[in-house]
Design a protein that fits this description.
heterodimer, A: about 250 residues, mainly alpha, two-stranded antiparallel sheet, 10 helices, 2 strands, about 70% helix, B: about 90 residues, about 90% helix, CPA3_antiporter_subunitB (chain A), MnhB (chain A), membrane (chain A)
Chain lengths: ~250, ~90
């Protein structure tokens, strides 16, 4: 197709999208208005199950099956990265190159923030049902926290702290137990991921029934999954070298 | 719409444009990170702290790190290829 033809096709598609978007936005309730049909349904449902953070109640209780789908997507993308970035035959693992000089302030800040970040991550996972946050957010904070060791220390230090096999298993365990808890709800009440644990009293650490348990499982899965994902990227970028190419270039 | 919302929306628009207008992928990872941060501010202003936390972790930290690592790997391959060609020519 010629470039003019491509441009015409793009303009046609863009005009169609613009019309659809404009129609959709004109039909939406005004910004900041008082009309919230979903809020009127979701907030009482969250209060009924003693879950102070309504967002967590929607994610893990009212629409738990959607979150189960999302967790499966996370698992699937980590597996996809692992499959795509596995060492090819022409690549060989070598010792990572010695680290370049780091600013002392970077090292200090990294080592000070490392334990703080890990504690914040655990806190966000543990209190996902009573305050903003939850398993996904806390899991990502935990995973980035580990990588402060690379910024502050060295890649070797990070590699020692991060036995990949354990994180592989942690990810699978988190995703699997999510499904098991969903099946438990199915067995007990006939609905997948039904809230089968006593809901406790509103605003307490032990409240919300299955919500905090699912938060911990998601936190386990997401933190381990993100660490595994980044490990594959680090291995590609730092320790793998492409062998054979130089010989081929020099031999001919 | 309060002035605060207008300001954070404007910041998102400016930094989003900056990401598009950044040419080198290395620099783009940094502007992408700043764009992620501006989205975090917008979500906080719109009273969505849960989404803001996710955005902070994923958009401002993990994705730029993955971009940087991918670029580093590609640059190394390019350098190696250039080296190999130089030696073969001698």
């Amino acid at each position: 197709m010629s470039s003019r033809g491509r441009l015409a096709l793009f303009l046609l598609g863009a005009a169609g999208v613009a019309v659809l978007f404009a129609t959709a936005f004109l039909g939406m309730p005004a910004f900041g208005s008082e009309d919230h049909p979903y809020r009127d349904l979701a907030v009482p449902a969250a209060v009924r199950h003693a879950t102070a953070n309504v967002v967590s109640s929607v994610n893990f209780d009212q629409r738990g099956i959607d979150t189960f789908g999302e967790e499966t997507i996370v698992l699937g993308s980590v597996i996809g990265v692992a499959a795509l970035l596995r060492p090819a035959q022409r690549e060989s693992e070598q010792r990572p190159p010695p680290d370049r000089h780091r600013l002392e302030s970077t090292t200090l800040l990294g080592y000070v923030l490392l334990p703080v970040t890990l504690v914040v991550g655990l806190d966000v996972v543990a209190h996902g049902h009573v305050s903003p946050g939850g398993g996904f957010q806390g899991g990502v904070i935990l995973a980035t926290g580990f990588h402060l060791l690379y910024l502050a220390g060295s890649y070797q230090a990070l590699a020692r702290l991060r036995p990949v096999e354990i994180f592989d298993r942690g990810e699978a365990l988190g995703a699997g137990l999510f499904g098991v808890l969903g099946a438990a709800g199915l067995a007990a009440t006939g609905a997948f991921l039904a809230n089968v644990i006593p809901t406790g009293s509103f605003g307490q650490l032990f409240s919300g029934g299955t919500v905090p348990v699912l938060n911990v499982l998601v936190g386990l899965e997401v933190s381990c999954g993100a660490v595994v994902l980044l490990t594959h990227f680090f291995t590609e970028a730092i320790t793998l070298s492409v062998g054979g190419r130089r010989e081929r270039g020099g031999g001919t | 719409m309060t002035p605060l919302i207008v300001m954070s929306l404007a910041l998102v628009a400016v930094l989003g444009t900056a990401v598009v207008l950044t040419n080198e992928p290395e620099r783009q990872a940094v502007t992408l990170s700043l764009f992620g941060l501006s989205l975090t501010v917008l979500f906080v202003v719109l009273q969505g702290p849960d989404v803001a936390l996710s955005q902070l972790g994923v958009g401002a930290a993990v994705v730029p790190l993955m971009v940087m690592l991918a670029i580093r790997r590609m640059r190394r391959d390019q350098e190696r290829e250039a080296d190999g060609r130089g030696e073969a020519g001698e």
